[in-house]
């Protein structure tokens, strides 16, 4: 309500004071165009000569702030404020627009209520959007052509895209930039860089608009992979080692085969020699056994009667005839034969016990 009353009183005051002003003052320097980022402040200056009474600031044709020489600034909203400066006979009023928005872009006027004494400028509010490269690190191989995509979203106006590699600008023929409208009056841009890296390098995408003090940037590191050459040498080395290993293993295999054959032959020879010796020992043992049995059978005298048995006192029932005659004689009732147990002859010493000569009969 107060602001409405001020807007009504201002024209009345100006109308009442105009006849006595004399119209001897003027605007010596008007406002200049300004380009700012959304959310920041915009400032405009208007300088008038001595004798001025009223200075009015208009935003898109509507008064937003009034400055009276006798009272100072009359502010009607917090978004539009002013600061005043005096230098000699001149007076300067600075209009400050706070928290600018994209919709604030337009015409700003400075008026002292005299014909042809209005000065104006234009306010341009720009929006700094986002800038990104999807991959922060890429690995590329030799002679590999790649595409790097830089995406700018939500800008006003559409940004100018440029590329740099290792702090040097890339030729414009190496990339293509496409612009498209976004939401709420904003713009998008997509830039695609095509190149064939020769070494590890850093690529930087730059997006610039007038309101930015320096371009916004996004970077990606290209890691040049020279493992193909390394793999080539490693494969050669691997092949060399394989060949050497094959030769060594072949030689070892041959040596091992020779050793196995020699061991097998020696084992067979030992086995045969052992078998032959066993056979010889067996034959020799059998021969010795046969000779012993022959010797025993040849020396044994079945008709031999020990000297003790010839004593009739020790063998009273023994017939006077030798056993061999009783063996071939037929049965005789009058002949009384007493069975005498067979006594195995005992070995005698080499010399005879008695010098008697004994007749030995061998039955075959």
From TrEMBL:
Membrane topology: Single-pass membrane protein
UniProt xrefs under Pfam families: C2-set_2, I-set
Classification lineage: Eukaryota, Metazoa, Chordata, Craniata, Vertebrata
Protein's name in the database: Immunoglobulin superfamily member 5
Transmembrane segments: 241-265
Annotated source species: Serinus canaria (Island canary)
Family matches, as PANTHER family: IMMUNOGLOBULIN SUPERFAMILY MEMBER 5
Gene3D superfamilies: Immunoglobulins (2.60.40.10)
GO BP term, pick one: cell-cell adhesion
CC terms in the record's Gene Ontology section: bicellular tight junction; cell surface; membrane
Domain Ig-like: 11-114, 115-221
Coiled coil: none
Keywords: Disulfide bond, Membrane, Signal, Transmembrane, Transmembrane helix
Intracellular or extracellular location(s): Membrane
Residues annotated as signal peptide: 1-24
InterPro entries (alphabetical): CD80_C2-set, Ig-like_dom, Ig-like_dom_sf, Ig-like_fold, Ig_I-set, Ig_sub
């Amino acid at each position: 309500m107060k602001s409405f009353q001020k807007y009504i009183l201002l024209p009345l005051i100006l109308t009442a004071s105009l006849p006595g002003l004399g119209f001897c003052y003027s605007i010596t320097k008007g406002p200049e165009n300004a380009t700012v980022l959304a959310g920041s402040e915009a400032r405009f200056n208007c300088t008038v000569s001595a004798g001025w009474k009223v200075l009015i600031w208009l935003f898109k044709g509507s008064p937003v702030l009034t400055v009276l020489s006798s009272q100072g600034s009359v502010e009607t909203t917090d978004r539009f404020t002013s600061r005043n400066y005096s230098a000699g006979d001149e007076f300067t009023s600075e209009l400050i627009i706070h928290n600018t928005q994209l919709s604030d872009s337009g015409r700003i006027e400075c008026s002292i209520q005299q014909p042809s004494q209005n000065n104006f400028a234009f306010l341009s509010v720009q929006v700094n959007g986002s800038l990104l490269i999807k991959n922060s690190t890429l690995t590329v191989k030799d002679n590999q052509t790649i595409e790097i995509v830089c995406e700018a979203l939500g800008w006003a106006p559409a940004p100018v895209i440029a590329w740099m590699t290792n702090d040097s600008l890339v030729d414009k023929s190496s990339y293509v930039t496409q612009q498209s409208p976004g939401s709420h009056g904003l713009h998008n841009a997509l830039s695609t860089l095509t190149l064939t890296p020769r070494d590890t390098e850093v690529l930087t995408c730059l997006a610039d608009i007038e309101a930015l003090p320096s371009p916004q940037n996004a970077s990606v590191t290209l890691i040049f992979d020279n493992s193909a050459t390394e793999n080539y040498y490693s494969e050669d080395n691997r092949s060399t080692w394989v060949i050497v290993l094959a030769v060594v293993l072949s030689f070892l295999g041959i040596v091992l085969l020779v050793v196995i054959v020699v061991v097998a032959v020696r084992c067979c020879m030992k086995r045969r020699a052992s078998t032959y010796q066993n056979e010889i020992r067996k034959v020799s043992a059998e021969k010795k056994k046969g000779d012993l049995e022959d010797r025993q059978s040849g020396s044994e005298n079945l008709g031999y009667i020990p000297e003790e048995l010839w004593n009739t006192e020790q063998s009273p029932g023994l017939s006077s005839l030798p056993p061999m005659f009783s063996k071939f004689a037929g049965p005789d009732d009058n002949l009384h034969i007493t069975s005498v147990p067979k006594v195995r002859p005992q070995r005698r010493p080499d010399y005879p016990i008695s010098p008697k000569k004994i007749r030995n009969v061998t039955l075959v």
